[in-house]
Specification:
single chain; 212 residues; alpha+beta; Arc Repressor Mutant, subunit A; Muramoyl-pentapeptide Carboxypeptidase, domain 2; 2 domains; four-stranded antiparallel sheet; two-stranded antiparallel ribbon; 9 helices; globular
Length: 212
């Protein structure tokens, strides 16, 4: 199915976004419950997405009976999930680098993240680490980042979409700056670790709260 047809399918887009947000493979029943749609509707949408190469079924063994079929995103799904003008931002950073030198992009992000830190400190609420991480996840979501709190242990934020993720590859220093910003906002150290689960990239910000 052409990309334009996929974009016209509200159910298909909802399925793609739910899989991306969950950060793992999901069964038809799980997607049906999460989206409030019938099993038949979800199954039909998944068949279309599979035929178009955007999802694939994976068999997961169970303790009893037949394996469970879970659907995961393929690499092709990146072309229709929102990218939030990353290419434009990357072009601006490269232009800044040409005009002002190699460190210009990092300096720009440092200043921007400083401002975000102050905004975040005012926005995040909670008297304990778990509540603060939940609040931090909600704040991150307000910027178009798919972030959720996980109790662990250890407790952490799990993020499955970040509109500037491509920049971390070209400018690794920015990823470290982001880790430091979130630690300052949370009030305790967070360690950023990258994972790939069911073909979906994840960023875990793992809390160190012994001295909180």
């Amino acid at each position: 199915m052409p990309r334009t047809s996929i974009l016209k399918g509200e159910t298909r887009l909802s399925v793609l976004n739910e899989l991306k947000s969950a950060g793992r493979g999901m069964s038809v029943r799980e997607l049906s419950a999460a989206l409030g749609l019938s099993y038949t509707t979800i199954k039909f949408a998944l068949n279309q997405l599979e035929n178009s190469g955007y999802v694939r079924p994976v068999r997961h063994p169970t303790r009893r009976g037949r394996p469970e079929i879970r659907y995961t995103l393929t690499a092709n799904s990146a072309e229709i999930l929102p990218q939030n003008a990353t290419a434009i931002l990357l072009g601006l950073l490269r232009a800044a680098e040409k005009l002002y030198g190699y460190s210009a992009p990092q300096k720009l992000f440092f200043l921007w993240l400083q401002e975000l830190t102050e905004t975040g400190k005012k926005s995040i609420q909670g008297d304990n680490p778990h509540d603060r991480l939940r609040s931090l996840a909600r704040w991150r979501n307000s910027f178009g980042i798919l972030s959720r709190f996980d109790t662990g242990p250890p407790p952490r934020l799990i993020e499955t979409y970040n509109p500037i993720a491509d920049l971390f590859i070209l400018y690794p220093e920015i990823a470290k700056m982001e880790e430091q910003m979130l630690s300052r906002i949370a009030g305790f150290p967070l360690q950023r670790i990258e994972f790939t689960v069911d073909n979906i990239q994840q960023w875990h910000f793992i809390a160190s709260i012994q001295s909180y």
